[in-house]
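**Sequence with structure:**
===
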Amino acid sequence: MFAKGQTVIQYMEGLAPKHVAMEGDKIGLQLGTLQKEITGILVALDVNEEVVDEAIAKGANLIVAHHAIIYRPLAQLQVDTPMGKVYEKLIKNDIAVYISHTNLDITEGGMNDWMAEELGIEVTGSIEDLHSDQLYKLVVFVPKEQADSVRAAILDAGAGHIGNYSHCSFNIEGSGTFKPDELANPYIGQAGKLEQVQEVRIETMVPHSIKNKVVAAMLKAHPYEEVAYDLYAMELKGRTLGLGRVGKLSDPVDLATLVERVKHKFDVPTVRVVGDMNRVIKKAAVLGGSGGGYWKKALRCGADVLVTGDIDYHTAQDAYMAGITLIDPGHNAEKLMKPRVAAFLAQKLEKDKYSTPVYASTINTEPFRFV
């Protein structure tokens, strides 16, 4: 059984929620429809004609890409232009294109965490914080006999995370009262009769990003026809997400060694480097894509080096004089997202018993040639 398009996108937005994207970023469905069965998924960094041909050859009717194919409103759609041919081929072959860009960069367990992991950076924070997840206190009253199952449903849905601890809750036993009216269909008790039931008050914390999911799981598991629960905002903030990642290297190395690691891990033939190759690097920052403009913030975070793409000449000069080293592996280094997103989607589909295949694109979309 093939997965529906909306099902696949629910998986993607579980990994990279749309609300964490940078304002104005061109993400989401950019071409085609998701109201269909997905016969195959191709995960790509960029979408060009070669990538579309690859999707056709593999029978994929959905491309999940990192970089948008439509950056600004189209005044016309001429199919005799290079990009117009790509749009035409996508439409004629009923291939949808879905974009996950800065939301995939920013999200926990996304692009910048992958880059940091590859380089051996023990992440302690972001280069620039953008989002703090609002925390809510969820309180629900459950018959004592069903408390364990309802609590498990709530916590398994993601509630109750405090730092490095999961499944955190507080529980108090007490007595609940209610009187069902003549229209009620009570789980316990009789219409018109006041009931007194031994209940457990379960309290836990829920981030805004999964609030609806947790409440739905609670309601599904709860035996009562009308569930008594409270949900209120807390002053305490949850996890913070932002651009880039910064942290200590698991083992300090000189810049020359880190350069070779970047080339190997990001599969790039060359990099551009600013700084003394003998300098010992203890703390590093990474930012996928074009992050040269964030070198000052990386420096304020205490980073000895910033690894990012598309650094311009004057930025390099300024950073050199300020004392931070730079490694530029190019924008195409972000291709490391292809196997990881493909593996994530394949795992989700297999778990839910869908037969939709997922492929990581093998097309090299690097526009530069190194000679």
